[in-house]
């Protein structure tokens, strides 16, 4: 009874497919016979025409009209795509054209063949065609004359008698995808589900015993593979792939059921059979160029260790199987140009590696060896994907290819290898982890050199491998050294790479060196947030001293390299040299500033400390301004401008209250505060003079000079005013100190405005004269609004007399130099 039911199930499942294959095979043979008959009819017609063209005896002219030839009825073959003919073309006879003489003789009715009502495309050997003829897919052309109009394929949209029109290409492609591909895929899925439902029903009702069920699945899968093979030969490629996919799925499920559900076979036997199924699927995919079957083989291959998993560690066997499976899938992907197979293999392999690591890994030496060897084997396998593609002229990678296919694997493989090595070796074996980083750096450097020497590879893959090598070299230092050692090592490495980039004239190498220097800068800046005040030797005992010296020296050397070799470089790279020089100056200044604030052993008062910091930043601004003369990009000039503005505003916003408390110790015009102010004024004046030598456009140079001159004048006035405010005035009564300061400010501002007016008249400087007039106006407002109400009579009289007299004198000077001012046009 069980055998009968199994036979019934086989008939239900495989019978329709076998009948379909048989009918298609028979129809193909019938069509071949029809074609042979057609060829025989053609040969007979040619012989008849040759006989008709033979010379005939001369006959007397006849008065009767020649008989009209009987027209030959043509039956048009209607394949899937009908043959479109020009409007004036002779009807196509027998679905193929015959070679006709110049004076064609009507073809007798006997030469017509009756064709089947539902013709099937005939795939047979083509007869000789003219050179310019378009191939006909669904019929075999006979030899045509050279001037014959090619028969075109067109799908008719109207009735049988309407004219054919070609649909848009996108609709035709969509129809082909929907009808030929997706209907096949959905049909394969639905058929698989239907078979599964039927089998489940049969199993639930105990129609078939476990052994019969497994045997039924295996036989059904094998038959489906045979049916798919026959369909491939019968030129039904799309449906054949669906049938093969169903067969592969049936085989996988049968073997899994035999092992997991019914315990009919042991785990090694089931594993071997699944491997055989996977190899068969891959071979069929290669043989028939079936991408869907290859994807199914990939899924089945990686599901095999999951489906057949046991409660014991089999890491060595698992990784050996994965290595062989990966190698096979990568070969298939390379041979057929299916990049998704490589991506799937990479993702599934590392997913299984992570699952094993979380479930079975321990810190024993044997487990560490298994994990590291497996990670190394996977790295070698997947790192060779992109070079193999490039060296076999398949894919010269372009930037848009970075996130798909081999290039994506080339980026992801080293990351996965480093993560695995770090999980195994850190923190117990950091030295070996550093060695592993160096080995990986050397390995990828070798890949870069091998691909660089190959013709037609392109620079992108070389840059990618070089960047990975540089990344591993850079990772070696934070793995092995402490935080300060990392900053030192990265600084030295970055400068060396930039220098090597100039020696080898390799722009990507220089850019890599700049990236490493940027990492060194970030690591160097993090050192200051972790330190507190110290009492050792100033500067030399600071923990970041050696890292700062290394970074400043590396940045300066790299900037010198760019300055010496930077002529003619690309525009974006021209900013690298000035940026490196600025980084060297700023890093040294920041370090000294931080050390000045945190070194408690110096014992500096807050105002004095602020003045020293101002001098420090003023020196940095002056050095940057001096370097701006050799900078064509004007980066250093802009940085010097901002630094000077920062220094000036910082000096104005000084700790005035603390200076007032210490005014008794200050000597007017001979104290540290005023000297620093004079230095700021001098640097502003120097800035105004140096701007003239930089060759800037007039629209840029003039505003900068004017702003620098005005800034120097304002800062000088400010510091002179502060000298008045900070005068001790010990001999003056306490109640008169404030009035004396106000009077002194009024007299100072008036004298300052008068001197500025004289300098502006002498040098014909309009901005300076207008500034003097503005200061005169400010002084007048102060005298009338402040001095008039707060000062005593003596202070008030002195303020008004000095202000009035100097105003009249300034007016006299204006009148005297009027012609000079009018002639200068300033």
- Give the overall form: elongated
Spatial ordering of strands, largest sheet: 1-2
Report helical residue fraction.
55-70%
- List the secondary-structure elements in sequence, H or E: HEEHHHHHHHHHHHHHHHHHHHHHHHHH
SS content category: mainly alpha
Helical segment tally? 26
Tell me how many strands there are.
Answer: 2
Distance between the termini: 121 Å
- The unreliable regions are 62-166
> Largest sheet, described in full?
2 strands, antiparallel
Strand content: under 5%
Q: Measured on Cα atoms, how large is the radius of gyration?
A: 47 Å
Q: pLDDT average, as an integer? A: 77
Helices and strands, with pairings:
Layout: H1 2-52, E1 83-84, E2 152-153, H2 169-204, H3 210-233, H4 237-261, H5 267-288, H6 291-307, H7 315-336, H8 339-360, H9 365-383, H10 385-391, H11 406-425, H12 430-453, H13 459-480, H14 483-503, H15 507-526, H16 545-565, H17 576-598, H18 606-627, H19 635-652, H20 656-661, H21 672-690, H22 698-725, H23 737-762, H24 766-790, H25 793-816, H26 818-824
Antiparallel strand pairs: 1-2
Describe the structure.
The chain has helices at residues 2-52, 169-204, 210-233, 237-261, 267-288, 291-307, 315-336, 339-360, 365-383, 385-391, 406-425, 430-453, 459-480, 483-503, 507-526, 545-565, 576-598, 606-627, 635-652, 656-661, 672-690, 698-725, 737-762, 766-790, 793-816, 818-824, and strands at 83-84, 152-153. It is mainly alpha-helical and 826 residues long. Among the domains are: 1-45 and 181-305, no CATH class; 742-826. It has a two-stranded antiparallel ribbon. Helix 4 packs antiparallel against helix 5 and helix 4 (237-261) runs parallel beside helix 6 (291-307). It is elongated. The model is unreliable at 62-166 (pLDDT under 50).
């Amino acid at each position: 009874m069980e055998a009968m039911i199994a036979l019934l199930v086989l008939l239900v499942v495989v019978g329709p497919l076998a009948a379909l294959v048989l009918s298609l095979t028979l129809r193909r043979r019938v069509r071949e016979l029809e074609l042979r008959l057609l060829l025989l009819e053609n040969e007979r017609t040619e012989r008849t025409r040759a006989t008709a063209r033979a010379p005939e005896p001369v006959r007397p002219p006849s008065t009767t009209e020649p008989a009209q030839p009987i027209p030959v009825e043509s039956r048009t073959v209607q394949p899937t795509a009908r043959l479109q003919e020009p409007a004036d073309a002779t009807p196509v006879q027998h679905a193929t054209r015959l070679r006709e003489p110049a004076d064609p003789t009507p073809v007798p009715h006997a030469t017509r063949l009756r064709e089947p009502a539902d013709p099937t495309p005939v795939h047979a050997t083509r007869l000789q065609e003219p050179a310019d003829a378009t191939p006909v897919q669904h019929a075999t052309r006979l030899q045509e004359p050279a001037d014959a109009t090619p028969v075109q394929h067109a799908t008719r949209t109207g009735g049988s008698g309407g004219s054919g029109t070609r649909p848009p290409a996108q609709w035709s492609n969509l129809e082909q995808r929907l009808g030929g591909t997706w209907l096949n895929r959905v049909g394969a899925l639905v058929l698989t589900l239907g078979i599964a439902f039927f089998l489940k029903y049969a199993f639930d009702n105990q129609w078939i015993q476990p052994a019969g069920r497994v045997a039924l699945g295996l036989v059904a899968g094998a038959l489906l593979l045979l049916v798919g093979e026959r369909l491939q030969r019968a030129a039904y490629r799309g449906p054949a792939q669906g049938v093969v996919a169903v067969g592969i799925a049936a085989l996988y499920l049968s073997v899994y059921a035999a092992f997991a559900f019914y315990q009919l076979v042991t785990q090694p036997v089931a594993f071997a059979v699944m491997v055989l199924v996977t190899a068969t699927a891959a071979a069929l995919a290669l043989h028939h160029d079936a991408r869907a079957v290859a994807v199914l083989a990939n899924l089945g291959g990686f599901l095999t260790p999951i489906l057949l998993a046991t409660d014991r560690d089999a890491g060595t066997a698992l990784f050996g199987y994965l290595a062989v499976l990966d190698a096979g899938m990568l070969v298939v992907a390379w041979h057929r140009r299916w990049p998704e197979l490589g991506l799937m293999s990479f993702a599934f392999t590392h997913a299984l590696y992570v699952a094993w690591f979380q479930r079975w890994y321990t810190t024993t030496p044997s487990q560490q060896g298994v994990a590291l060897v497996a990670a190394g084997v996977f790295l070698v396998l997947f790192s060779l994907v992109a070079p193999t593609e490039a060296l076999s002229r398949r894919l010269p990678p372009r930037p848009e290819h970075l996130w798909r296919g081999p290039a994506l694997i080339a980026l992801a493989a080293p990351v996965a290898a480093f993560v695995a090595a770090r999980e195994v070796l850190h923190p117990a074996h950091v030295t070996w982890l550093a060695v592993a980083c160096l080995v990986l750096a050397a390995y990828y450097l070798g890949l870069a050199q091998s691909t660089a020497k190959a013709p037609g590879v392109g620079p992108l893959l070389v840059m990618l491998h070089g960047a990975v090598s540089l990344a591993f070299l850079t990772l070696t230092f934070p793995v092995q050294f402490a935080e300060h050692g990392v900053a030192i090592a990265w600084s030295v490495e970055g400068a060396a790479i930039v220098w090597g980039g100039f020696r080898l004239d390799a722009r990507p190498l220089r850019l890599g060196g700049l990236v490493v220097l940027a990492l060194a800068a970030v690591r160097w800046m993090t050192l200051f947030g972790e330190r507190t005040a110290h009492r050792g030797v100033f500067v030399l005992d600071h923990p970041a001293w050696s890292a700062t010296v290394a970074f400043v020296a590396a940045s300066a050397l790299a900037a010198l390299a760019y300055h010496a070799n930077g002529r003619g470089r690309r525009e974006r790279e021209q900013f690298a040299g000035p940026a490196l020089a600025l980084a060297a100056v700023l890093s040294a200044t920041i370090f000294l500033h931080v050390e000045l604030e945190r070194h408690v052993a110096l014992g500096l008062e807050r105002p004095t400390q602020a003045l020293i910091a101002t001098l420090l930043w003023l020196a940095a601004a002056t050095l940057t301004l001096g370097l701006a003369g050799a900078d064509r990009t004007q980066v250093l000039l802009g940085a010097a401008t901002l630094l000077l503005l920062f220094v000036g505003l910082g000096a104005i916003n000084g700790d005035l209250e603390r200076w007032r408390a210490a005014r008794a110790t200050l000597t007017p015009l001979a104290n540290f505060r005023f000297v620093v102010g004079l230095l700021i004024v001098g640097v502003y004046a120097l800035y105004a003079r140096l701007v003239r030598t930089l060759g800037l456009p007039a629209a840029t140079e003039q505003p900068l000079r004017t702003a620098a001159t005005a800034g120097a004048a304002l800062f000088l006035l400010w510091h002179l005013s502060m000298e008045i405010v900070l005068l001790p005035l010990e001999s003056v009564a306490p109640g008169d100190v404030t009035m004396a300061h106000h009077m002194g400010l009024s007299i100072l501002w008036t004298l300052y405005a008068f001197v500025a007016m004289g300098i502006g008249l002498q040098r014909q400087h309009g901005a300076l004269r207008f500034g003097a007039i503005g200061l005169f106006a400010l002084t007048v407002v102060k005298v009338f609004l402040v001095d008039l109400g707060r000062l005593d009579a003596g202070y008030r009289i002195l303020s008004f007399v000095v202000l009035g007299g100097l105003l009249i004198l300034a007016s006299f000077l204006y009148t005297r130099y009027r012609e000079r001012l009018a002639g200068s046009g300033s």
